[in-house]
What we know:
By secondary structure, this protein is of the alpha+beta class. Helices cover about 25% and strands about 25% of the residues. It has ten helices and 14 strands.
Amino acid sequence: MKVKAVSAIREIHQATPDDLTQELLAANQPVVFRGLVKHWPLVQKSLQSDQSIVDYLRGFSNQQPVQSFSSDAINNGRYFYNAQLDGFNFAPKTSTLEGVIEDVLLHCTDNSAPTTYLGSTALEHILPGVRQQNPLAPLEHAPLVSLWLGNQSRIAAHYDIPDNLACTVAGRRRFTLFPPDQIDNLYVGPIDFTPAGQSASLVDFQQPDFQRFPKFKLALEQAQVAELEPGDAIFIPSMWWHHVESLAKFNLLVNYWWRQVPNYLGSPMDALNHALLSIRDLPESQRHIWRDIFEHYVFSAREQAHIPELQQGVLKPLDEAAARRLRATLINKLNR
C-alpha cells in the first residue's frame, strides 16, 4: 500500500544550506529540502553508479567492526518482530563496512539472498574524513551524524527524541510521517522490547489489518508523505512518527540528530520509565493529583516568585551543575 498524503509536507526546491534556518529547525513541522546536499561528493558518486559510491566509501574505511542486520528474503525487507512478538525476524551480524557492502551488493544481484541493513552507525567511527568532504555548515556541530546503508527495507513507524535531518545519498526513500498526537491510532508496541530502541507501530503499512487496527484509518487521515531522491533531505521534528521505506536495491542515507536543549539535561524517556514505576499504578484519584502537580511544575511551569530566588533550587532553569546534583539525587534514591 502506498499511503496518500492528506496534507503535503512543505517543500523548499533548489535548497541550499542557507535554507536551514534556526526558525525552521526549531519548528514542529516537517520540511523537505530538495537538492540540499546534491553537491556532496557522496551524492555525485552515487549518481554515477553504485560501484562509484562503493569505491568512494572504501577509500575512507578504517576497518572498524560494525553491526549490521540480515533478514530472509521472504520478509520483503521488513525489519520487525517475529509473528509471536517474542523475537525479531532479523539477526545481527558483526563484520566491517566492506563486509556489509558485499552483502548489500549480493542481494542486488540475487533476490533470494537475505537483505542487509546497517543502521545508525556513527559516520566518524567507520569513515573518518567523509564528513569533512561532505559538510553541512548549519549542522556542523550536531552531536551525532550517522550512516544508514542497505537494500530495500521497511522500518516500522517510530519516533526519535532528537530532531532529525535525514539526507538521501543513494537510492530513493519514502517517508510517511504522522504528528505526535497520533500515538493512539498507530497501535504502538512494547516500550521495553523494541526492534531498534524505540517503540514502533505494529501495523504493516503494506498490508494494514484494519480489523485488528481499526483506528489506523484515522492515522492515515493525518499522514504526510514524501519521496526523496539522492541529494534531497527531510527535517523530521522531535517525536514525529515516521515510517521509512528504502525503495532501491542499494540505498545510503546520512542523518543528523540534535536536541534543542543542552546535553546535560536528562532524556524524557527516563522520566516516562520512572513514571511507569512510581505513578501509573497508583489509585486513580492519586494519579489525577500527580497530573496536576506535573502540570504545575513541568508542563505549565508556574512562576515561583513567592520563593526567594536563592531558595528556588531545582525550580529554576537548570544549569549543568544543578543538573548533575539532581541526577545524583535520583541515582541515590533509585539505588535504595
